[in-house]
Each structure stands twice: as structure tokens, then as C-alpha cells.
Amino acid sequence: MTTVVDLAPTAWSGRDDGPGNEHLRWHKAVAPLEGRTDSGAGVLIGFRSDEGVRRNKGRPGAADGPAALRRALASMSLAAPVRVFDAGDVEVVGEDLEDGQDRLGSAVTGLLDTGSLVTVLGGGHEVAYGSYLGIANSAAVASGARLGVLNLDAHFDLRSDARPSSGTPFRQMADRETTLGRALDYAVLGISQPSNTAALFATAAELGVRHLLDDDCTTANLPAVESFVEEFLGAVDVVYLTIDLDVLPAAVAPGVSAPAAFGVPLEVIQRVCDLVARSGKLRLLDVAELNPALDVDNRTARTAARLIHRIVTDAIAHRA
């Protein structure tokens, strides 16, 4: 299978302490995809876009997120060998966001249909609609597998605008599912009440969107968070997990379009990711809104890379 991308993967490099698995780091484990079809392997694909953020009146710069995420991952140590390939990047040129989302979707579908665990490196959160197209058109979902979309985010991103943006992807998903005679199974954890209008809460209720407020996602309330996630996982067959880094406190993730005034503690986000990765149902992950130009000491990139590292290694080990 050939995955069509705009930018071919570049060589990974990083700290090198010597040969052998005892010194293994991501930059030594990742290889160019080059048409491989290794079932059960992890595949990274970048989505270079901040057009959706621009349309949503946010701070541009997320198009440089994929490169920053790869740099942050490169020198992370691996406890055991893992098969991971880099497919390169899909790039949004100019204002043609919709074409970029379609092309990302096609690439993701092809990768999923080979049995790969796919991780999309964003990019603004407009990446979510492209990722969704990829899994919604996959053979598993076409064969009747129940798709669940779990969003870790301060925002519902359910706006109904004439022009798609980083604020509309989950409304676009819901509308498309309706046209296909299905309902979108969408849950979001980390919602900031001050960052979402009453109209958005009403839309979420109308669409049957389950959510937890950031106020309810504290470490003290972790059992309730775990129950929320486990209930979601129990109702679906395949999972698409999307992480908007603005779900984290601004001190942990300053390099995003809209830093959180409160946010969900990293310990809680990590526990949610563990539950999803170890469920055996995760097929697709994306990480959105990293803006390297606004990142302080690469804090956001390092945090995001640690989450990717943890999710991908766990999910590959627990594939159903």
C-alpha cells in the first residue's frame, strides 16, 4: 500500500548512548514507512495545518507542531523494542483546509486497513475531522464496528459555521454520521464552562454528547473520571482518541492557541490515556494544537511526546 503524503519523512536523530536494545530510543526505532504493511505496528503521520485555527481567530503556528513532536519524541527511551514507522506529512497549502482534511482521511483509512495503530501529529484541532474521515471510512467501521470518539479538550468544538475551522470538527462529524443514518458516539473530558457558550452546551445535549467538566476532573475525583471512561469504552468496538493540548493547565502546556486558565491535571489525563490504550480498542490517536512558537522550554512538546510515547507503546502491547 502506498500512502500519499505531501512531505516524505525525514531521518530521525537524537541522543545515542550505544548499540543494543538496552540503549533503544525512538529515533533508532522509527523507520520510514515506504509502503510497508506491518499489521500491528504503529504509524505516525503529520498534519501540517493551522488554517482552521486562523479561521477560528486563534494564534497561528500549529502547522509546525508535527516537526516539534517528532523532535520531542526522538530521544525518549524505549523500555522494549517497538515497531513504529513514519509516513511523512500531509500539508494544507494556503486556505484549502477541506482538501487537506480529505487527503489526510484517505491516508489514515489506508493505514488503518493494514492493521496499523495510527497516530496523527497535528496541527490545529481541525485535524480531528480529517482523522475522523479516516476511521469512519475504514473497513472495520464499514463492517459494522461501533466507533467511539473520545476528546480530551477544554472545548466542545461543536460550532455550526458556514466555513469549517478548528471549532467545528465534531459538529461536522455529527452531521456526517446523521446523513449516513448513524449517531456520533462522542464523549469529551475536560470541558471548561467559561470557554463554551450556553448554546454549545445545548448543542451537546441535543446531540447526546457525554462530557465531564474540568472542575470534575481533579485527582481527588479520579474514580468518577475512570467510571466515565470505562462506560464509554464499554459501549464501542473501536476508539478514536483525540487530545487537544489546551485541556492541560497552562503551566504544563503553554504552547497552544488558547492556554487553559484551569485545565485538567496531567496525572488525570495520563490515567485516561492508560485506560484507553490498555482497552485493546484504540485504533487512532491524534494530538492537536501544539504551537512551538508559543512553547516555553518545549514544555508542551515534551508533555505531548510523553503522552504519545505512553499511549503508543501501551496500545501496541494491548491490541485486541
Automatic annotation (TrEMBL):
GO molecular function, one term: agmatinase activity
Free-text function comment from the UniProt entry: Catalyzes the conversion of N-formimidoyl-L-glutamate to L-glutamate and formamide.
UniProt-annotated binding residues for Mn(2+) 1: 125, 153, 155, 157, 244, 246
Keywords: Histidine metabolism, Hydrolase, Manganese, Metal-binding
Endpoints of the signal sequence: none
Residue span of region Disordered: 1-20
PROSITE patterns linked: ARGINASE_1, ARGINASE_2
Name of the protein this chain belongs to: Formimidoylglutamase
Matching Gene3D superfamilies: Ureohydrolase domain (3.40.800.10)
Pfam families named in the record: Arginase
Cofactor, how bound (note): Binds 2 manganese ions per subunit.
Cofactor: Mn(2+)
A single GO BP: L-histidine catabolic process to glutamate and formamide
EC numbers on record: 3.5.3.8
Pathway where this protein functions: Amino-acid degradation; L-histidine degradation into L-glutamate; L-glutamate from N-formimidoyl-L-glutamate (hydrolase route): step 1/1
